[in-house]
Every structure is written in structure tokens, then in C-alpha cells.
Amino acid sequence: MALWKVHLSAPGQEPKRALFLDRDGVVNAERHYLSKPEDVEILPGVAEAMIKAREAGYWLVGVSNQSGLGRGRFTADQFHAVMIRFDQLLEEQGIFFDAFFYCPHAPEECCTCRKPKPGMLHEASEHLKWVPDGSWVIGDKKCDVALGRNAGFGGMLVRTGHGESNEEAVIQEFSEDKLVQVTDDLNAAVDFIVEQGRR
After folding, report:
1. Among 170, 166, 138, which residue's Cα sits nearest to residue 154?
2. What pTM was computed for the model?
3. Annotated catalytic residue 140
């Protein structure tokens, strides 16, 4: 697994709930093997959703499978250029990730960090004091939902990106699970989670 950026380090922090957000199809518009900074496009309403989550007391942590690196579809330099632009566009809207982690491996490499495996959550624990109770993983694929549930907290599927094509599989596997939800986009997901957190 790999760390792109962390804004804070663990000493002195108060433990908080966390929202672990997938990048492509959730925060950024889905692009097949995104490799060009000019193709980065923050989805509508994302910055507002992230600001609401931060104001409600959640860490904002990116967790992204980037198998394009392991498959040779783009280079580390290209990935870094995309992430610099990604950060810039978010910061222009007044928000940033507290930390961002990514898995650079292809599926056949059998790593411990490719979602739904928990490696990126474990690495997040080395940098941020976060508590599972009330935390969620939000993504547009079944593996995102499974990551949250495998770790014992919530999994939220959004219908942006690949979400609509993953919805049926998620509903079939997690139909009786109250900690699995499906919403239209990140804004709706954050509204639901923040309201749940107040109860």
C-alpha cells in the first residue's frame, strides 16, 4: 500500500469517526485508468459534502485501488500529477483530505491493501486516531462496501461512477445488513451518515 498525503499525524489527536472515500466515481468523475491531470473533474456537490462531514466531526480519508499502476497503464509520475491536480481542485473549493492512501497493485499480486482487504485502513491507523463505531466506507463498487463491513463498520454505495452497475450485487449480498446503504451520490451519503451520527 502507499500513502499519497497526510495533513496530520497521530500524536495529540482526539479520536474521531472517519469517512473513507473512494476517489474515482465518488469524488472525481469516473475515467478509465485516469492518467492525465486535465481529465480530473471533481463531481458536483462533492466539496460541499466533504465540508459538511468535516464540520460534523469526521476525518476525511481517501482509499483508492489504483491497479493501473500495477498493470502498467500509467506511471507513478502520471499518478502523482493527477493527484496534485486532484488536491488543487479540492483546495480551490475549500476542502482537502486529512490523509489519502492508495493500492498500486494489480489484482494478481495478492497484496493486503487492495479493497476489500483492510491494509489501507490499517495504515490509516498509523497516521490518524479514528474509531470504527460510526465510521463508513463510501464507494461506487461492491468492494468498497465489503471493506467497511469486513472491518465492522458501515459500507455505503453511491450510484455515481460504477455504482448503478454494482447496486444489484450489493443489495443481493447485504440485503439484511442495516450498516449497508445505497444513495445517489456523496452528498446524499453524507447527509444520511451525519443524521445517523446525531441519533
Report:
1. 138
2. 0.94
3. no
Mean pLDDT of the region 167-188: 96
Domains identified in the chain and CATH numbers: 2-7+19-198 (3.40.50.1000)
**Between vectors from CA 41 to CA 153 and to CA 9, what angle results, nearest 5°?**
45
Active site residue 22: yes
Which residues lie across from 136 on neighbouring strands? 19, 154
Across 94-99, average pLDDT: 95
Residue 127 has phi, psi (to 5 degrees) of -115, -30
Catalytic residue among 22, 98, 140, 144: 22
pLDDT in tens, 97-117: 999 999 999 999 999 999 999
Q: What is the CA radius of gyration of the chain?
A: 15
Any residues with CB less than 8 A from the CB of 26 and at least 6 apart, and which? 43, 46, 138, 139, 140, 158, 160, 161, 186
What are the C-alpha distances in Å from 159 to residues 112, 166, 172, 181? 27, 8, 16, 11
- What pLDDT sits at residue 2? 72
| Element (DSSP H or E) covering residue 168 | helix 163-174
Instruction: Report the pLDDT averaged over residues 180-194.
Output: 97
